[in-house]
């Protein structure tokens, strides 16, 4: 009776032991295998001196290492670019699924970009300078100050989610943000005033 399962090392050892005194058909009956399989094992042993199966080539990967690295570099440089455009730009012969799988393998996923008001480099430096200037102030000092600010709520604004490619922990990196700019849209201003209570510091 023949079996379709792959020969074990023990089966192959028996074939080599029997091959000097028995033909393939006889060996097949002794170990319950197909004669064609026995002949193939014997022929392989005579040609290579081994009974192991030759390595299977399998399907080649859709992306080689160079292409995968190029894909990763591209999406980390142009976080907002749609993946299908990245594939076209790099002239990659792969599907969106394959490209996503390559990015996911290194921890890069598509996320909705965090929205933050746009701050120029000049304003960012001014804010840092202000913090450095007043960093020695105590909670009691700040309790004497009232902070004011205004936020606007835009009417009739159409929301559109913008996605970016990033690692976990990069959400608030500058290149992963969607800046919010003031526009000419109709809006309602909402003034706010904030002060610090000193009750916690008076005891």
TrEMBL record:
Pfam families: HTH_29, HTH_Tnp_Tc3_2
Domain Transposase Tc1-like: 69-135
Gene Ontology terms for molecular function: DNA binding
One GO term (biological process): DNA integration
Record region (Disordered): 46-67
Coiled coil: none
PANTHER family in the record: TC1-LIKE TRANSPOSASE DDE DOMAIN-CONTAINING PROTEIN, TRANSPOSABLE ELEMENT-RELATED
Name this polypeptide is given: Transposase Tc1-like domain-containing protein
Organism expressing this protein natively: Rhizophagus irregularis
Lineage of producing organism: Eukaryota, Fungi, Fungi incertae sedis, Mucoromycota, Glomeromycotina
């Amino acid at each position: 009776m023949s079996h379709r399962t792959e020969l074990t090392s023990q089966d192959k050892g028996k074939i080599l032991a029997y091959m000097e005194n028995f033909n393939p058909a006889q060996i097949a009956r002794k170990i319950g295998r197909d004669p064609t399989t026995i002949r193939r094992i014997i022929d392989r042993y005579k040609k290579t001196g081994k009974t192991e199966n030759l390595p299977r080539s399998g399907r080649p990967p859709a992306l080689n290492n160079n292409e995968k690295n190029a894909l990763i570099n591209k999406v980390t440089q142009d976080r907002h670019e749609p993946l299908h455009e990245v594939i076209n730009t790099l002239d990659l012969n792969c599907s969106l699924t394959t490209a996503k799988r390559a990015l996911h393998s290194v921890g890069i996923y598509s996320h909705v970009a965090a929205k933050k008001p746009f701050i120029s480099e000049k304003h960012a430096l001014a804010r840092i300078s202000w913090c450095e200037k007043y960093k020695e102030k105590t909670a009691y000092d700040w309790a004497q100050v009232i902070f004011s600010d205004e936020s606007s709520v835009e009417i009739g604004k159409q929301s559109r989610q913008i996605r970016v490619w990033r690692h976990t922990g990069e959400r608030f990196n500058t290149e992963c943000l969607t800046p919010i700019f003031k526009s000419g849209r109709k809006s309602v201003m909402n003034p706010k005033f904030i002060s610090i209570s000193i009750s916690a510091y008076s005891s």
